[in-house]
Design a protein that fits this description.
By secondary structure, the protein is α/β, with parallel strands linked by helices. The longest helix has 20 residues, at about 155-175. It binds S-adenosylmethionine. S-adenosylmethionine binds near residues 261, 437 and 455.
Length: about 750
Amino acid sequence: MTTTNFYKDFDFQLLNNPEFKEDAVREELINPILKGLGYKAFGHNRIVYSKTLSHPFVKIGSKKRQINIVPDYLFEINGKYTWVLDAKAPNENITSSDHIEQVYSYAIHPDIQADIFALCNGKEFAAYKKDEKEPLLFFQLSEIDQHWDEIQKLLNPDAFVAQQIVQEAKTEYKTSSKNDFDYLDRNSLQEIKVKKQAAKRHFGVHGYFTKQAWNVVQQYIINYSKQGDTILDPFGGSGVTAIEAMMTKRKAIHIDLNPLSVFMVNSLITPVDFNLLADEFDKLEEKFTKHLPQTKQEIKEALQKYPYPKGNILPKGSDVETVEDLFSDKQLAQLAYLKQLILKIKNESCRNSLMLAFSSTLTKINLTYHSSSSRGINAGNSAAFAYYRYRMAKEPIELDIWASFRGKYKKLINAKKEIEPLINNSTIKNAKILKGTATDLSFINNESIDYIYTDPPYGAKIPYLDLSVMWNAWLDLEVSEEDRKLEAIEGGMQEKTKDEYVDLLSQSINEMYRVLKFDRWMSFVFAHKNPHYWHAIVDAAEKAGFEYAGTVKQSNGQTSFKKRQNPFSVLSGQLIINFIKKKTPKAIQRVNLGNDIYDLVIETIEAVIAQNEGATLEQINDELIMKGMEFGFLDVLSREYKDLTPILMSEFDYDQDNEKFHIRKNMKFKTKIPLDMRIKYFLLSYLKRKETQGENPTTDDIILDIMPLLKNGHTPENQTILIVLKNIADEYEDNKWRLKKGGQLKLTF
Ligand SMILES: C[S@@+](CC[C@H](N)C(=O)[O-])C[C@H]1O[C@@H](n2cnc3c(N)ncnc32)[C@H](O)[C@@H]1O
């Protein structure tokens, strides 16, 4: 039986005292349960206290005044309400139909729609499933220990997350199993709210340099492919694409040059016998703690006896020279001892699972581990992941190795349990996790892939192979000279040039084109502030035969370290460029802007600022890149305006508090572009975007959407917008507009 200790100092006789009311029940008895279940006031598993809801049916008085209802606790998990709890005073009966009906009405409220509702009066706790008469759970609080496992199973946030996953897969099955999935009729996705930490399969098991937000990748996969399709990510990294493909009942091909990536993903998804794994873990604990090298003499002996990495050179810029220099002798000895114990385990899946937990432990047990000042000593990261450099911690923290390992093991078990409903012995054959290069996919047949979602390296930012040396060395994973040559990065130990990087990326785009079926999509993530790379990618994709199908802004839910250091030089968000492989692709229509695009840049910045009532550097940069992509002036932009900071600082006001740029006080909009040109520019951009989204705006939509962009002291007449509109677009059925086909798209200033 689990011992909760929640009420060890509480005298249950107090409940008979009439002074002990509902608020005391909340404070003394309910709150410890909620904390024990893992709910917090903020974050993904949050409690919403006393939310005011308007009563859906009841209104009173001749003026029909709205009645409000206020449930005591609502539990929001991943943005959805999952259950409701109401506190009562100890003298109130929580099984009386009046009270039950009241809480039931909260659960079925249109703004809540929770499946479970519960009541607690300090003495008893009852939880009901909507539409079921008998309680799912009923216990005396004084006997909570006897029921704790049952309570956890029903009300723990993880239980709801697991249900959500199965539910989402079912809903998606319903939508995409219809035979009418039309690959050509896909609307582009708008920015998706990131839920990074909400999936155990991607959070906490093993760090990596950059990870895509799993829910974004999942939405893209669902949007552009159907169940049973084959999804490829040739720059797979930590495996978000492959895992989400499997979680949505597709087949997955994951490729990465970094053996660490392949090891991580394989070890995570390979099915394992949980009982056997738990046995192996217990045996390991016993052996490890029995002979753990602790004294100087024991450490010395362990270092002679057990192998550990020796002589593996760290990348340039590291604070020390070799992998072994990253550890104290004690850390080296204990890690080496743990590793050799794990390697003796016979069952391969158990061994690999525990090696994965070991590799993840390395992230914490080394002298470059930086603890988090805000989230505590356990919540830090290794410098290679956090700063992209082997930077020694000023004051290294020596965490307890077994405690770290146990923590990682638990996270791995939770992750494996989360994926088990969809990734198991009967489906694992649908995943191919391979070490290889995106530049040569010759083992994949022509026209055999249904969708590609990929996130390649970002120029010079992260040399993955160099930086993975600590993990690869401990895992005995080889990286050859040939691998280094093929790595699509700029700089690194091989000092690759920008041209070499672009060339490797282009080769991989050619391969992606070859393996993709016709009328299928590729989504290409990019997060580099220098637009030159965008230009290079779109050019390479068009040359390969892809048709450009629009770019979407998408936050990845994190601010990079560099961005925090220097807010004006690095873009923190990312864009997703979508391409389609068509038999007769259209090339992007380029616009001749002349050489001076300064006004256009200012115009665009002013428009983003006006639209958002102040804009951040990221919003401005993303908008410029997208405009540049759409109109083909990205090359000029990248040549002339590498760094926007000088323009922004000289032309606009910067508000430190909200990190937004604003139009200078008392200043008119700056641009000198004539009004009809401005209208034309925005109309073109707007209609093109609508076209890629598969929407057909009406005259009213157009006027309403375009007008705010032109706020410039004098607002144009609707008539002026219409005249320009007729010039560049055709009107068809019901007052709807689309761009003239092959029409004149020249903008000259
Ligand atoms: C931006 S990361 C991908 C991160 C991934 N999207 C995730 O969510 O974890 C880029 C990956 O490309 C890999 N890579 C670099 N050059 C490669 C090549 N030529 N072929 C295959 N993978 C390569 C790196 O090892 C790295 O894992």
